[in-house]
Amino acid sequence: MQRKVSFVIPAYNEEESLNELYSQIMANINLCLSEELLSDYEFLFIDDGSTDNSAQVMKELRNQDEKVRYIIFRKNFGKSIALQAAFRNVTGDIIITMDADLQDDPVELKNFLLKIDEGFDMVVGWKVNRLDPMEKKLPSKLFNKVTSKMSGLKLHDFDCGYKAFRREVSDSLDVYGEMHRYIPVLAYRKGFKITEIPVHHNKRKHGKSKYGMERYMRGLFDFLSVAFLSNYHDRPMYFFGKVGAGFFGIGFLICLYLTVQWFMGFQIGTRPLLQLGVMLIFLGVQFLSIGFIGNMLVDVTVRNNYSEAHIKEKV
Description:
The protein has helices at 15-34, 54-64, 79-87, 109-116, 134-151, 167-171, 183-189, 214-232, 237-263, 272-304, and strands at residues 4-11, 40-47, 68-72, 94-97, 122-127, 163-166, 194-199.
C-alpha cells in the first residue's frame, strides 16, 4: 500500500528510553513493510525543553537514520504544544503518536493500521490493563466517564497517547493548554469517524512520570472549554441567549410584581427586591448582547476560514 506513516514522539527528559523505543518501532516497521501496510515512514521526535541529554540522543538517531527528524524547544511548553508543532511539520499520510517512556508497545502498530484501513479516521488506544499507580488510574477513570458523557463519544481512554489518525485530522486540529487530552473529542466535533482498540501497556522502565497534581486543575479548565466548544462553538447564542433570557425573564417578573404593588400604594423605591430585578434585567441584556456578538464572530470566521478539510468527499 502506497502510504507514508509519521511516528510522532514528544519527549521530556527521556534520554534513557529513546534508543530502545526507536529500535522497537523499527522492528515493527519492518514487519509492516513486509506486509505492505505502509510504503514509507518517518520519525518526528519533539524535545519539549528537556534538561537531560534527550536532544543529543535525537541528534545521534538522526545521524544514524535520515528518516529521523526532530524539533527541539527552547524550554518546556507542554505536550499539547509539542504535538501542535509536530502536526504542522509531519509529511506522512497516517500519523501515529506515542509516548517516549516505553509504556506504549510498538507491537500494536499493525493493529492500528489495519483498523484505519477499515475506514476510520482516528483509532485511539485503550489501556485495558493499565500499569500505573492508583493515584493516576482513579482520576483517569473519572475523567474518561465524564468526558464520554459530555462529548457523546463512547471511548474508554481519551487520554491515551497512543493514537493513529489520518493527516486530514491533524490538519484540522489546533491543540494548546492541556487539549491533547481531548484530541478525540475535538476530532469528533469536526465529523471524523473515531474508534478504539485495546493496547498492551508496559510499566515505566526509566525515569518518572512528568505529571503532577496541578495537571488536574488545568485539565478542569480545559474540560470546561471543551464542554462549551463541543456544544456551542458555532452557535454561542444558544448558550448566552438561554442564560440571558432566564435572567431577563426573572428580572422582568420581579419588576412587574413590584409595579403592581406600587399601583396598590406600596412604597418600592428602597426595596432590595427592586435592585435585584433591575440588575437581572441588565444582566439578561448583557448576556443576549454577548450572544449576538458571538454569532457575528462565528459568521465572519466561517466565511473567512472555510477549508477543504470540512469536506469528506466531492466530485
